[in-house]
Amino acid sequence: MATYYRRKKMCYFTANKMSDVDYKDVNLLKKFIMENGKIVPSRITGTKACFQRKLTKAIKLARFLALLPYCDRH
Q1: Phi-psi sector, 17: left (phi>0), alpha (psi -120 to 50), beta
Q2: How far is it between the farthest Cα atoms of the chain?
Q3: φ/ψ bin of 39: left (φ > 0), alpha (ψ from -120 to 50), beta (otherwise)
C-alpha cells in the first residue's frame, strides 16, 4: 500500500523574494491566468493572500490597458 504525500505549495512571490506585482510584466501575469482568461485561485497556485490580492489588481489593470485579454476568443 503506497502512501501519497502532497507537496506543500510554495508562494511564487515569496520564493523569488518579490515584494510587489507589476502590471506591466505580462509574462508573469500569464502564469496566473487560465486558458479561458480566468484568474487561477490561490488554493491551486499556492499564492499567499496578500500577493493574490495584488495579483488580481495587476491582472485587472493590465486587462483594462489592453495588455491582457479578458477572455480567450475575443
Answers
A1: left
A2: 53
A3: beta
CB atoms within 10 A of CB 70: 10
pLDDT tens digit sequence for 9-56: 899 999 999 999 999 999 999 999 998 889 999 999 999 999 999 999
Give the per-residue SS3 of the chain.
CCCCCCCCCCCHHHHCCCCCCCCCCHHHHHCCECCCCCECCHHHHCCCHHHHHHHHHHHHHHHHCCCCCCCCCC
Residue 14: Cβ within 10 Å count: 14
Q: What's the rounded Cα separation, in Å, for the pair 66 and 21?
A: 17
**Phi, psi (5° rounding) for residue 73?**
-100, -20
Q: Which is higher by pLDDT, 56 or 3?
A: 56
